[in-house]
């Protein structure tokens, strides 16, 4: 799965997105989040759209336009999940680093300083 795959799968969510930059390990989390938002959009007059997806403060961060409270809770859950998943490969990870902190598995944390 790639960023382009997700953008193609949910084109209606990405019409105003200016930045989608996370590692491949978090893409399954993003895909699930997009599936939930897209499904809820079906019943909404004002559709939610993704403005930005990135890593910020060591976790997945998603900004929406026209989001609902329920969507905000899904985003918060996805963010918490990302703190336990290697951003590079999707395996179990933990926070590593000192001045720059990322969520990585033992293999990917070997070369991270």
What descriptive keywords fit this protein?
113 residues; alpha+beta; two-stranded antiparallel sheet
Summarize the structure.
The chain has four helices and five strands; from the N terminus they run αβαββαββα. With 113 residues, the chain is α+β, with helices and mostly antiparallel strands. A three-stranded mixed β-sheet has the order 1-2-3. A two-stranded antiparallel ribbon has the order 4-5.
Q: The biggest beta sheet, please? A: 3 strands, mixed
**Count of spatially separate domains:** 1
Question: What's the overall geometry?
Answer: elongated
- Count of helical segments? 4
Q: Write out the strand line-up for the largest beta sheet, numbering strands in chain order.
A: 1-2-3
Order of helices and strands: HEHEEHEEH
Low-confidence stretches: none
CA gyration radius, whole angstroms: 14 Å
Helical content band: 25-40%
Spatial gap, N to C terminus: 27 Å
Mean pLDDT: 93
Structural class estimated from helices and strands: alpha+beta
Content of β-strand: 15-25%
Q: Care to count the β-strands?
A: 5
Describe this structure in words.
The radius of gyration is 14 Å and the shape is elongated. The protein has helices at residues 3-9, 27-41, 69-82, 106-109, and strands at residues 19-21, 49-56, 59-65, 94-96, 102-104. It has one domain (3-85). Helix 2 links the parallel strand 1 and strand 2 (49-56). It is α+β, with helices and mostly antiparallel strands. 35% of the residues lie in helices and 21% in strands. The mean pLDDT is 93.
